[in-house]
Amino acid sequence: MEIRKDITFRFGIIYFLAILMGVIILVKIFMIQTVDTGKWEQIAKELKTNTTELQAKRGNVCADDGSILATSVPYYELRLDLAAPRVKRVFDEHADEFSLQVAELFNISKSQFKQKLTKAYRDGNRWFLVYPQKVNYNQLQQFKRLGMMKRGYFGSGLIVVGESERVMPHGDMASRTIGTLNKGAYGGIHGNVGYSGIEGIMESYLAGENGLALKRNYSGHWVDIPIVEPKDGKDVVTTINVNLQDFTQNALMRQMLESQAEWGTAVVMEVKTGEIKAIANLGRRKDGAYAETYNFALGHAGCSEPGSTFKLMSMMVAMEHGYVDTSDVFDTGVGKWEYRGQTIYDSDYGHGGHGKISMKKIFELSSNVGVAKIITKYYEGKERDFIDRIYNFGLNKPLGLGFAGEGVPYIKYPGDQVWWGPSLAWISYGYEIKLTPLQTLTFYNAIANNGRMVKPKFVKEVQENGLLVKEFKTEVINPAICSRETLAKARLLLEGVCAQGTGKSLNNPYFPIAGKTGTAQVAYQNEGYTKGGRKNYQASFAGYFPADDPKYSVIVVIVGPKGKFYGGSVAGPVFKEVVGKVYASFLEPRNEMDEELIKVPEVKTAFRNDIAEAVDELDLDINTKAADGELIQVKATDEKIEVAGLNVQEGSVPNVIGMGGSDALFLLEKSGLKVKMNGLGKVRKQSVPAGNKVKKGQTIYLELS
Amino acid sequence: MNISLGKYIKGDRVIWMVLLFLSMASILIVYSATGRLAYREAGGQTAHYMIRQAIFILLGFGVMAFLVNVIPVKFYSWIAPLLLMITIFALLAAIVQYKLTPSKPTPRSLDLGFLSFQPAELAKISLVMFVAKILARHQKSKDELKKAFVWIMGSSAVVCGLIFYGDISTSALIFGSIMVLMYIGRIPLRYLLLTMLAGLMLLAAIYFTADYLPSWAGRVHTFKERIDDFVYGDDDADEGTTQADYAKLAIYEGGFLGKKPGGSEVSNYMEAAYNDFIYAIIIEEYGIWGGFSVVFLFMVFLYRGVVIVRRSTRTYPAFLTAGLVLLPTFQAIINMSVSVGVAPVTGQPLPWISMGGTSMLFSAVSFGVILSVSHHNQKNKEVTEQPVMVNLPDEDQEL
């Protein structure tokens, strides 16, 4: 009995000690709940107010027909937390199999990947980049479906960093004018603000408004609960015509390659509206190839001495003041004239000279001596009158287009420190001043537009889900830059240049053109006018057509050509090609009879629903339910209308021939291909044949017409 | 139905009730705390782990009913040495298996192909059975008790040493419980204090040399880290908030009456909410009253242990009960202490509440044995007020 009492007693002591522990625990709970609760409140608040931005989808930049010039496509960065407990648990056993699956998916070397993976694992890397490139949605899904990701627990370490990337489906086409985005501080995830080009000036429409969401954890899943829904950006419809842009860029490219020039630009503008139909800029990339490296047409680096194209302005001032008429005769001598210690040469000096000729002839032959003599004769001592009138044209002010880095013109004024003896003569034929090619074009366009100077227009309208939100009217800079008489004479001068002057080679038998060649000797960048004894030229041509009823104006500037350097022979061919194309595309009278007879319009291959909607709208007799498939193709033969279904098979390249550009882009990007388009209209050719196995990230080239 | 089931509910009714309440708490709280786990590993079926837990609880009650109805108490005394040998073998096998298979994450479990279990759970039962047997045999004189001390120390050292390799805290829990059991078993306090001193010195030595020990030395590094984290605060915590912080946040958020059943939010942020920190989630959902209830249930459980021991007529069942009651109680105290932050972080689950698998069945065996003893006591009482003299002089002492 002694033993039992002893045991019970001892157990009792332990029991009370246990109760004491229980009391301590309860007291501690009470203390946590009442003493120094700030820390817990803080953490709780952080958990509850943990917010994240919901990225708004950036609007598209579209061409004049709505086809996409720049769009945002979601991309993902795949990362693994290799220190995740579950990854650790299986790493040794399954790293090999995992490497194999990843290597197969991305077509990379398994051993190299495993080496990298193992090293990262040993380093305890919690942010391991699985694949150096960003992957599209499809690849992300495939990655998630890998056996080792699902069953092998590697999935528990997956971190997906989503980001949208700006894609230009037409590649380099007008890319400088379309513009770029600022990447921002965190490699684009938080940046993506429009910076240059149209992306920059239209930022407020394109950007949309980011939303706000609470990050909440529900049963271990992070869920974003939107508080403020994001507003997607609106689409911007530009004035750029894909077809013409493509053609202009190619024409310029051919000339650049031939002349091996430094840089060149070509711009097509619609006379009445000022709409920029095409704007090509080619400069040398670091590797020597030509590409859209800079917006020479309107940027400050393209702002240079215009040369002979400026003679038009000089002559117009003199005519406007009533000093000269086109028939007044001046002596150009042998093409060499000394003025205030400076010698002025004609470009064809050494061929005997032209002697006494009319002002019109001086202009047509582009005689420097002639122009300088005219201007110095009437404006010596009255230099201010001349420059004031030039200012009156609005040429001393930038166009105010809003583009980042827009060039600022420079025309010196008498009395300025830099104004010296022969300045007046130099300025008269386009030296000692700076204008952007686009400014010169704007002036020539005003001549074509009956003296009404309109601002170059890059954006037609803003759309939201295809509906018009805002339309941009043509802005008038100056309703009449000169008198009717002067205007008529100026046009006569420009027509003369192309009829019998330096622009004669640009003539064509179908419609008259008007314009002015320019050949300026320009400075190498920061290296003076000559480099190694070789002169650097700027060849240009500015003009409009048809001369009798101007519809389009064009400027071509090519700087630093090797070999030929005259405006007519370097810039001229580009002008001629572009003019021909524009005429064929827009101005040639069409035979409308043929179109009347076609009862069924040509239907692009497209999604069934879209076609059905259009068919309803137009009240056509097409049964869109006649075939299966997500996509359908409508073929109209003489006797009947056929509807064929096209099914897209997972993993194989879809057939996009006959489809519109944006539908094709959507479909191909969805199956993991990168798309490059050329042309406008319906897809005629695809570089990867339909039915081929899709290789992720492969580029497919589409030809549209 | 009730009556027919009631027939098998033998032994201490209060303990049955305590276990029933704990089971209910377990199912509710496991459901709340496994959301994250369910999403990660069970395809988002949040009831998955609750159902699993309920099944193990039912199985556990089956085991208890079986033991209390079928197995005589004497059997445990008889099987104890054999069971201890199996335990030691299983512990060794687990370590060997860990060394041989690189993919095995821990030496704690033994994979037998058709099932895997933690030999330490078996050790808790077999060591107590064995120690109780030794103690029961050596109550007659001081010399005998001294001999018992040597035996117990020897066997515990082997078992706890093997567990120590993979799981320092469980090893310490078992060893500590055996020490207390020896105290109850009248081993002179002097020996126990000396042993405790030696044990503390060993832990201190490990703590201070942990940085110099090679990596094969098992969990010594974790051990030091945990102590440091407790004393100095966790420095490499995820986003500056540790598991222990989240546990305290849960306790703070729970307040007086708690959020509501299933209303736990903090558990979503915690890695081991269904296990090591389940007590914090209980408080978050049921408030300080929930916390008190759990403490109260375990104290009732321990109290019933004292009652059973007092009613025992023989030493072996008394020591057996004391050991088997003390182990889960201590484990519960440690778990709760960790959750509220009065002890360093250790991976001790809350017995019968935390989500478990085979460990639930081992717990059920302990409870079954305890119930068997109480049932045995009641039977003796019913038959005759006088204790029945069982002629087993070698087995244990009559009280």
List keywords for this structure.
heterodimer, A: 705 residues, alpha+beta, Penicillin-binding protein 2a (Domain 2), Beta-lactamase, 6-stranded antiparallel β-sheet, 21 helices, B: 399 residues, two-stranded antiparallel ribbon, 1% strand, carboxypeptidase activity (chain A), Penicillin-binding transpeptidase domain-containing protein (chain A)
Uncertain residue ranges of chain B: 384-394
- Rough shape of chain A? elongated
> How many structural domains of chain A?
4
Most strands sheet of chain B: 2 strands, antiparallel
Total strand count of chain B, please? 2
Overall pLDDT confidence of chain A? 83
Oligomer: heterodimer
Tally the helices of chain B. Answer: 14
Strand content of chain B: under 5%
Radius of gyration of chain B: 21 Å
Strands of chain A, count: 34
Q: How many individual helices of chain A? A: 21
The assigned CATH architecture of the largest domain in chain A is: 3-Layer(aba) Sandwich
> SS-based structural class of chain B?
mainly alpha
Transmembrane segments (chain A): 12-32
GO cellular component, one term (chain A): plasma membrane
Keywords (chain A): Carboxypeptidase, Hydrolase, Membrane, Protease, Transmembrane, Transmembrane helix
Protein name (chain A): Penicillin-binding transpeptidase domain-containing protein
Q: Could you outline the blueprint of secondary structure elements for this entry?
A:
The complex is a heterodimer of chains A (about 700) and B (about 400).
Chain A: H1 2-34, H2 38-48, E1 51-54, E2 61-62, E3 68-80, H3 85-106, H4 110-122, E4 128-129, H5 137-144, H6 147-150, E5 158-167, H7 175-178, E6 181-182, E7 193-194, H8 197-201, H9 203-206, E8 211-218, E9 221-228, E10 235-238, H10 242-259, E11 263-270, E12 276-284, E13 290-291, H11 311-320, E14 329-331, E15 336-339, E16 342-345, E17 356-358, H12 359-365, H13 368-379, H14 383-392, E18 410-411, H15 423-428, E19 433-434, H16 437-448, E20 453-454, E21 459-464, E22 467-471, E23 476-478, H17 484-500, E24 514-521, E25 530-531, E26 534-535, E27 537-545, E28 552-559, H18 567-587, H19 592-597, E29 606-607, H20 608-618, E30 631-636, E31 641-646, H21 661-670, E32 674-679, E33 683-686, E34 699-704
Parallel strand pairs in A: 2-10, 32-34
Antiparallel strand pairs in A: 1-8, 2-3, 3-4, 3-5, 6-7, 8-9, 10-21, 11-12, 11-28, 12-13, 14-17, 15-16, 18-19, 20-23, 21-22, 24-27, 25-26, 27-28, 29-30, 30-31, 33-34
Chain B: H1 2-6, H2 13-33, H3 35-41, H4 48-70, H5 73-100, E1 110-111, E2 116-117, H6 119-137, H7 142-166, H8 168-184, H9 189-209, H10 220-232, H11 243-254, H12 278-311, H13 315-340, H14 358-383
